[in-house]
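Posting for a labmate who doesn't have an account.
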Amino acid sequence: MPSPIEDYALIGDGHTAALVSRSGSVDWLCWPRFDSGACFAALLGNEDNGRWQIEPVSEQPPRITRRYRGETLILETDFETAEGAVTLIDFMPPGNGWSEMVRIVVGRRGTVNMRMALSLRFDYGFSIPWVSRLKHDSGIKAIAGPDTVVLRTPVDLRGENMHTVAEFTVSEGERVPFSLAYAASHLRVPPARDPHTALARTENHWLEWAARGTIEGRWAEPIRRSLITLRALAYEPTGGVVAAPTTSLPEQLGGSRNWDYRYCWLRDATITLLALMRGGYYDEARKWRGWLGRVMAGSPRQLQIMYGIAGERRLPESELSWLSGYEGAKPVRIGNNAVDQLQLDVYGEVMNALHLARVGGLQADDTAWAVQCEMLEHLETIWEDPDEGIWETRGGRQHFTFSKVMAWVAFDRAVRSAEKFQLKGPVDHWRELRDKIHADVCAKAWNPSLNAFTQVYGGDQLDAATLLIPLLGFLPPSDARVAGTLAAIEKYLLHDGFVLRYRTTEVDDGLPPGEGTFLACSFWYVDNLALQGRVDEAHAMFERLLGLANDVGLLAEEYDPTAKRLVGNFPQAFTHVALVHTGLNLIKHEQEMAQATGQPPHDGQESDEFLQDPT
């Protein structure tokens, strides 16, 4: 049975990523890319669907602690037994030319008996490979169809019931390495490399990257860890960032809201780009904007809400019947049919991101502006249409309030870009459209009985996405409608202090009701508290959200306050981006208050005003 979602840590190499449990089991790894078939799929089934376990053998369960080595993606797990102590070091070397996972067992005290169990199952736990000994190295080769994996280690290996196992001992000062490398089966196997050299190179890679960041002051540590996590979710060859490295981790334990997030959403693209810039990572922001520019190219009528990590358009959804699902949550899905949905908000997200990228100094070429103008021409013809909305509902199209707000954002940012950077366009016409959409939203989305903006035009249900209205500049924080919407959300959408996206028991979204509280929405709630002057409450809520992260600083998509468990795909880029933005917003707000009172900021940083929305 897989571990609790919060018991996993992430390692990666810029091409794919693995989840490692507290007990030393690698239960999820897709090779060679994030969206490839998994060779370890125990996360969504059991050990017969593929995993790689290294653990002590002792009568009593070991005491386990773990951490990342400084600001890196090198995981260190300490096991303490009555006989001694060892540290298991897990990492994936970047820039190898092939993808590889390295595990090194280091003796710290005494002598510890260890066991390794490797179960390779390609194609999401379906295909059992043919395993043979390496001719010139100590280790094995496993092959099935297009996939080959090579395990090298000085430890004696043996086959046991379709698994590869080994027993060994580690004494103080000893280091026992294991290296698992992937190659396409028609190519030569990757050459052997020294694991200890690979460890040093991997540590230098991450420390050099982290040193380029500019985050200082209060909450710097969780913000930096979130940025490292976002970097780990980026596909190095193209710059695309996956929403999560996993599929089908349920939004409700035992439920059916199970989706494949190993793709790139335009919405996530834009807020990730801004988070990277705010953190000082302009090279990554340029790569991400380059990915965005490539997928945007072509007819605006064919703009999709999401793409594959190289820009692929077709992501057909199917179900894997042989996997039992995480803790029985079925179906297990690969692919995502939401690719065909209309979500009007992505036009506003893209326009906002490209505007702020220009403000931040990432100048785009003339082609990018031409594509943006074409997008606006198309948006003008469809903004009054119903859509599926930001939450990708499957209950039919409606006039979602947030979608209309983001259509306003699209034309608003076009006006600002044209004015600030002397870009050519029908600016007066865009202003008229902007004002028309604004009036439309205020007239049709406001519910006087609730004293709030509702999820859809003329509706009576709330949506946490409306918390973004003041953050986007649609209305100022001082507007009574902003305060009213916040109060209504506090009354109807808070569950144990955390924010639901909407009430699935009251809204027909085409799916069975039930899900956790949505962590990104809870971070937006913190932003609104601060904007309303409730700063102490904002700080307390932010600290409470940070407390939901696991012991290595990772967060899932949602949190179940009843079970007190993280739920949904993990780790979730959308959540970590929201953490970055809210943390930096609080730091900036603290600076501004300190400047207003003439007091020095609390370990603050210089304000990145050019990255704030100029509303």
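Reply:
Got it, the structure tokens are right above this. Residues 573-597 form the longest helix (25 residues).
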